[in-house]
Amino acid sequence: MSTTGAVPTAFFSRAGDVFTPLRPATSNWSPDMIHGASVCGLLARALEAAGGGENFIPTRLTVDMFRPARTSPLTTSTTTVRDGNRIRVVDAEAIQNGETVARASAVFLHRSAPPPGEMWTREEHPVPPSVDLAPPSDHPTAPWFGSDGHPDGWSNSLAGHQGASRKRMWTHQLGVVEGEAPSPFARAAMIGDATSLLTNWGSCGVGYINADLTLTLCRVPEGPELGLEADNHVSADGISVGTATMYDRHGSLGTCVVTALSNVQRQIDFTDEAHTPHAMR
């Protein structure tokens, strides 16, 4: 944890190859766990360092979170699976106390000219809050939430949007590592984990905990602010699948998918107490 009185602006501090979780990384599910956004951001950072650059765009990230990541130091390791002229594939692991707590893989594709012709796309795309309501900031800000049918549109209140309607979010996320500006890819990875929040959030709160995240991008985000809008939720036998569209002020840029398990014994009801959306894992 941070040894200073200042409010942390990132999820981890760094000493060499060791990353120590800071207070904002703590999960709402348990005080000795860190949430998925921090894990996804740390693994995306490692993957991009190994496979990014030279006109390669991170286009697919998959993170498997199969063990609880605790509030103790972590390290990361990467393996290059393929280093081709047009496609790169890199794997990564997050390691804690000698055990792998999460693994990830990323595909990086080389930029090129698009083929000719017109293609179908959905007519309705997510719309961010106005710049008057949520002006751009150089620093992380409180997230905005929206839900279909809400009388006030966007607000900072989780409790105010609890219900069975479609959810959306707009946020300038904290950084991954203290003293580093997160890359657009790392920002997308951290915010993508909130797909579980938006797609599994119902009239009684959130009772599903996601086991993974798959993020697909046609481009990296522009600017520090990003949004998610829920597209679908399907569930059976305590297992759910949720999909969401990621967007910035220039339009939609990707799709997020999560699978989740029922965690009803630790149901989070936002009408009972204040919670922060980045701490949903």
Automatic annotation (TrEMBL):
InterPro entries, alphabetized: ACOT8-like_C, Acyl-CoA_hotdog, HotDog_dom_sf, TesB_ACOT8-like_N
Acyl-CoA thioesterase-like N-terminal HotDog domain: which residues? Answer: 27-108
* Acyl-CoA thioesterase-like C-terminal domain location: 157-257
Q: Which domain of life is it from?
A: Bacteria
Species, as recorded: Speluncibacter jeojiensis
What protein am I looking at?
Thioesterase family protein
Which chain regions cross the lipid bilayer?
none
